[in-house]
Amino acid sequence: MSKSDIEIAREATLQPIAEIGAKLDIPAEALLQYGPHKAKLSFEHIDALADRPDGKLILVTAITPTPAGEGKTTTSVGLHDGLSRIGKKSMVCLREPSLGPCFGMKGGAAGGGYAQVVPMEDINLHFTGDFHAIGTAHNLLSALVDNHVYWGNELGIDPRRIGWRRVVDMNDRALRSIVNSLGGVANGFPREDGFDITVASEVMAVFCLASDLQDLTERLGNIVVAQTRDRKPVRASDLKAPGPMSVLLKDAIAPNLVQTLENNPAFIHGGPFANIAHGCNSVIATRTALKLADYVVTEAGFGADLGAEKFFDIKCRKAGLKPRAAVIVATVRALKMHGGVPRDKLGEENVQAVRDGCANLERHLANVKKFGVPPIVAINQFITDTDAELEAVRETAEGMGARAILCSHWANGGAGTEELARHVVEVVDGGDADFKPLYPDDMPLWDKIRSVATSLYGADDISADKKVRDQIAELQSTYGDFPVCMAKTQYSFSTDPNAKGAPSGHVVPVREVRLSAGAGFIVAICGEIMTMPGLPRVPAANAIHLNADGQIEGLF
């Protein structure tokens, strides 16, 4: 019987975090330690790196996700270990996991098998407290809004138009829609409210796009929390909120340094939703890694139609990053699902289904090329994969001008990605990348949304009712230069999660638009998107417990 991820992680021999930092020439005094194996990197050291040349940035993304699994984080860690094995000074930048999925259905987000970041229990749970700080800063702003209304409402906030919900880092459907301030005059003015999960907070998106503490404070001040009765925006700065919010975030904003199972350094910092936000780790961590290493591997949430597009069009645009290559992770099992095979039949050879499902891979390859970034396919190996099925994936990739490389990092760690690592180095050192966002800043918001839908999703057009079109027109006058952040199902190129493969000819309905003025983007909600998930009938929490030795069991 194979070992669980947590059993593998527990058997690892971890090095003191100061030794991990030394591999990147970070002096011990620049590390703010959280025990022996976690640390934050001081801003004094980050600032001292400013004149160093940048390393080369590599994105890891994936085909459209399925219940069969793709292994994007596992591949990111495996590629980093592979680069280190072939003698390259490498770094990986990942997102912090949310407690909601850990105790819900998805599980942790620290990699898997022998391609993990450790200490995985800490990373998947409270870690260094960043999410708690972000949630507290968010809810401080919520408290300041209601407190302002209670004490006379000098700004003239319309309680019916308060758009700032509260957050908690847990899946809790009962909190999606609530009424607050009940209980009489002393408790304020009753109004409808609700909770989102912390990773859906705009504070999280701001946190991950800020370039430094000053920029963070300015962005927090730009957050629009409500409107007055004459529809004027009310910002966090109007409530004197950015100062105390940034105080709560001053330690959290420093990147977290940990290690892989093979004792290679890793930054894990921030974790915005890949639907309602941009789904990438912090700009600060990525920029710092580029100063510390020659090759930097990072990932973006969900499939390339969501995560990679937002990485390119939002994060890279805002932060001035120039990615050199994109690794698209695929599994034969997932491709078979896209080819119409039910989950209980995935262990049986079906070459035709793989070929049919490769339509999804082909579109992702074509999409990545539209950004001027050369793609590479990493086949995350399963024991049931057959030679004929693997060859079908290789032929598809070659037909699109890319290589598909078999990777066994889950079972073999960095040794299972050496071939991928060598090819990645060959591609990024070849200088063929010519990165450019999909659309220019000055394109109208409506056309930006249409551009993503038609260019990347295979749609014929987008649609919206008059109310939404009026919203977009109103936003255009002040925020027309913002990029758009597309919120749709991660399970399909379309807004129908059951439409697998590469659907085309559909119309993408824009149901709602939301302003994220602090983060600096407009969210276009297409179809049904949940900002507060619920727990499944049998949540993962049911299996998580402490054993007789006080060790955590059942956590992934």
Describe this structure in words.
The chain has 556 residues and is α/β, with parallel strands linked by helices. The chain has 19 helices and 26 strands. The strands form seven sheets. Strands 1, 2, 3, 4, 5, 6, 14, 15, 16, 17, 18 and 19 form a twelve-stranded mixed beta sheet that branches. A three-stranded antiparallel beta sheet has the order 7-12-13, with no helix packed on it. The radius of gyration is 23 Å and the shape is globular. The mean pLDDT is 95.
List the helices and strands and how they pair.
Elements: H1 5-11, H2 17-22, E1 31-33, E2 39-41, H3 43-48, E3 56-62, H4 72-85, E4 90-94, H5 99-103, E5 111-112, E6 115-118, H6 120-124, H7 130-150, E7 157-162, E8 166-168, E9 178-180, E10 191-193, E11 195-197, H8 202-209, H9 213-222, E12 224-228, E13 233-235, H10 242-249, E14 256-260, E15 265-268, H11 283-292, E16 295-299, H12 304-319, E17 323-330, H13 332-338, H14 351-369, E18 375-380, H15 387-399, E19 404-407, H16 409-412, H17 418-430, H18 445-456, E20 461-463, H19 466-479, E21 484-487, E22 507-509, E23 512-516, E24 521-525, E25 545-546, E26 552-553
Parallel strand pairs: 3-16, 3-17, 4-15, 4-16, 8-11, 17-18, 18-19, 20-22, 21-24
Antiparallel strand pairs: 1-2, 2-14, 5-6, 6-14, 7-12, 9-10, 12-13, 14-15, 23-24, 25-26
Helix pairs in contact: 4-17, 7-8, 7-10, 9-10, 13-14, 14-15
